[in-house]
Amino acid sequence: MDSLKLKIPPLVLVVITLVMMKAISTLLPTSPTLANLPLLLPIVLVGIGGAVMVAGVFEFRRKKTTVNPMLKTASSALVSGGVYRFTRNPMYLGMLCILMAAALLWNSVYALLGCVFFVLYMNVFQISPEEDYLTELFPDSYPAYKARVRRWL
Questions:
Q1: Domain range spanning residue 62?
Q2: What CA dihedral angle connects 69, 14, 120 and 50, to 10 degrees?
Q3: Of these four, 9, 56, 130, 134, which has the most CB atoms within 10 Å of its CB?
Q4: What confidence category does residue 132 fall into, taking pLDDT thresholds of 50, 70 and 90?
Q5: Cα angle vertex 94, ends 112, 85, to 5°?
Q6: Residue 59, domain member (yes or no)
Q7: Cβ atoms within 10 Å, residue 80
Q8: Does residue 40 lie in a domain region?
Q9: Does 1 reside within a domain?
């Protein structure tokens, strides 16, 4: 299983998850409860997700470090300001919001399983290796930051 660590870029994983969620929502029954939710809810989730991701990218650019999680060796600074005061992974959190919006838009409780898959996959194969690397790179400041700020929210 270690062979999956840091192998699939997060944006590719989002596309794979969206395709999987769409297939599930097409094949399995829709939810009348979700169908009665206002359309504004998925729109708001996409807006929040997009804003959180942009805020994360902005902080990385401000610190002049790489946004690409596949390029571990290019990390030059620990980013802990801005949105990173509230979540250690705002870009991934934003992606999750967009996935949740898709499930709501497609009126599929079953498609929400894609969100669960995304979180589990990201925790094990993306975030944990990133955290190990950041602990090595910033042995004093990263553990303190990690203790202060939650992984997702």
A1: 7-69+78-148
A2: 80
A3: 56
A4: very high
A5: 130
A6: yes
A7: 18
A8: yes
A9: no
- Among candidates 16, 97, 9, 15, which has minimal Cα distance to 50? 97
**Distance separating alpha carbons of residues 83 and 49, to the nearest angstrom:** 12
Number of domains in the chain: 1
Assess if residue 153 is contained within a domain. Answer: no
Sign of CA dihedral 53, 54, 55, 56: positive
Return the pLDDT at 1: 54
Provide the pLDDT for residue 71: 67
Question: pLDDT, tens digit, for every residue of 92-120?
Answer: 999 999 999 999 999 999 999 999 999 99
Q: Which of 16, 25, 26 is closest to 117 using CA atoms?
A: 16
* 8 A C-beta contact, residue 98 and residue 14: yes
